[in-house]
Each structure stands twice: as structure tokens, then as C-alpha cells.
Amino acid sequence: MNAKVYESMNDQINHELYSAYFYLSMSAWCESANLPGFAAWLKVQAGEEQEHALKFYEFLLDRGEKVVLKAIAQPPAEFASPKDVFEKVYEHEQKVTALITAIYEKALEAKDVASQVFLQWFITEQVEEEKHASSILDMVTKVGSSAGGLYQIDHQLGKRE
Ligand code: FEO
Predict the structure, then answer these.
(1) How far is the C-alpha of 38 from the C-alpha of 29, rounded, in Å?
(2) HSE toward the beta carbon, residue 51, CA cutoff 13 A
């Protein structure tokens, strides 16, 4: 594989695992704040991020490349509110979209068609990830500090499987 495409994909394993760590930390904070539905949603999301990391891991191995796992940074443990949590989720997903786009551009430059096809799944997935994060942020913003409103959102988020 082209060195730039390989390196950015190997780094993406770390970015996805950091995403899992970040969302799990948010999940723990929500659990402690008596928001079990928010916590459950974020825990499912953390699991999906691990799956994303494994997709890159398996793709690199399938292409005969070496997987080099790097240290995962410590995520924040304190958040101001559920709104703060979802502002950070949305912001983080936008960063991930930019990272995936940058890998795709490298694959285009390198004329690496197999990587382009592989990355299409992530490009579509990021549209969904940003949509979910922004719609939850929107709901949380609308209810403000209303305990009843937050309880309703918590109940709804707890249904995610
Ligand atoms: Fe793996 Fe939330 O992007």
C-alpha cells in the first residue's frame, strides 16, 4: 500500500479506539448523573467505535500490512451537562468525518481503488453519525434544564440497541 494511505489508516485505528474511550467516559459520567438512557446510548456508541477500529485493523491485515497499535489518549472525565456531552459528541464526529475524508483523498491520489471502496462505508456512516449527534444535541438544547424534558429524552435514548 501507499505509505501515506497506510499510515493514515493505521492511525485511524487509534482515532476510533479513542472515540470508544471518549464515549465510554461520557457514558460513565451520565450513569453517575442518574441518566441511564444517555449512558446506555453512549455505551452502545462506544461499542460501535471499537467495531470501526476493527474494520481498519482487518483491512490492513487483509492487504498484507502491519498493524501497529499506539497509546490511546486519556479522555475527559468531567462534563458540565448532557448538553455539554452532546456538543462534544457532535464536534468529535465532525473531526472524525474530516479524518476519513483526508484518508479518502490520499487513497484517490495514490489511485488505491480498494481503499476507496473500503472507505465508502465510513463516508456513509459518518453522515449517520453526525445526523444522530446533531439531532440529540438539538433535543437536549430545546428542553434546556427542564427535568421532565431530560427524563423523556433519557427514556428515548435508553431504547437504543
Ligand atoms: Fe467511528 Fe463515530 O465514527
Answers:
(1) 10
(2) 9
List own/partner pairs for 21-24 with CB under 8 A and 24 or more apart: 21/46, 21/72, 21/73, 21/75, 22/75, 22/76, 22/88, 22/92, 23/49, 23/89, 24/75
Q: How far, in Å, from the CA of 140 to the mean position of ligand 1?
A: 21
Q: pTM to 2 decimals?
A: 0.96
Q: Which residues contact 37 (CB under 8 A, 6 or more apart)?
A: 153, 154, 155, 156, 157, 158, 159
Give residue 15 CA to ligand 1 midpoint distance, Å.
Answer: 9
Give 67's contacts (C-beta < 8 A, 6+ positions apart). 10, 13, 57, 60, 61
What digits encode the pLDDT tens for the residues 121-146?
A: 999 999 999 999 999 999 999 998 89
Residues 2-15, mean pLDDT to the nearest whole number: 98
Nearest residue by C-alpha to atom 1 in ligand 1:
49
Ligand 1 midpoint to CA 33 (Å): 24
Check whether 161 has a pLDDT greater than 90.
no
